[in-house]
Amino acid sequence: MNLSQRNRATVSKPDDQLSGKLFNSPNDLVQHSNGSYLFTDPPYGLKDADDSKQKQLAFNGVYWLKGGDVTLVTDQLTRPNGLALSPDEKWLYVANSDPQAAQWWKYPLSADGAVGEGQLFFDATAWVKSKPGLPDGLKVLPSGHLLATGPGGVLVFSAQGEHLGTIQTGVAAANVALSLDIQYLYITASNYLLRIKLKAAV
What we know:
By secondary structure, this protein is an all-beta fold. About 0% of the residues lie in helices and about 40% in strands. It contains no helices and 15 strands. It has strands at about 30, 35-40, 60-65, 70-75, 80-85, 90-100, 100-110, 120-125, 140, 145-150, 155, 165-170, 175-180, 185-190, 190-195. Strands 1-2-3-4 form a four-stranded antiparallel beta sheet, with no helix packed on it. A four-stranded antiparallel beta sheet has the order 5-6-7-8, with no helix packed on it. The chain starts with about 30 loop residues before the first strand and ends in a 5-residue tail after the last strand.
């Protein structure tokens, strides 16, 4: 969901360092049950990415939009991309689409809206040279299991970060979506739109 350069929004009120500067190119978002939104802001929509003359922020961030105010969740990821919330909304998962750091991170969320220090959830950097794809879109099942596009296809993780298996797509997979009844998983992979029936919402 990249925004064009013309439509790039302005960071409103996170702090003095960010105030008044333009986002890079907001990419993915997830809605919290309280109506707020969390979103990632990689440089993919900018010509020359991090080296773009139009880039006003010195980092690529993850943000939380609450009631018109935008606060920075983290500026420590090089290519923040897909993101999702755990079923109890106590954790935020973020994919980092960097071949040098192909990782997923998780951030604890408290009831009062505070965000804790990030923790490495899974590192697939070693797989990048031999398998197509990078961490990108992801979804979380009611059980807490993650379905995340990455090297090799769609990786299945337990909530504890254990790699349970991979849905091998043969080409780089970019994003995933669940049907409303959580019976089917949809996958975008290069020039394919794929659907797979889930045996259970594991």
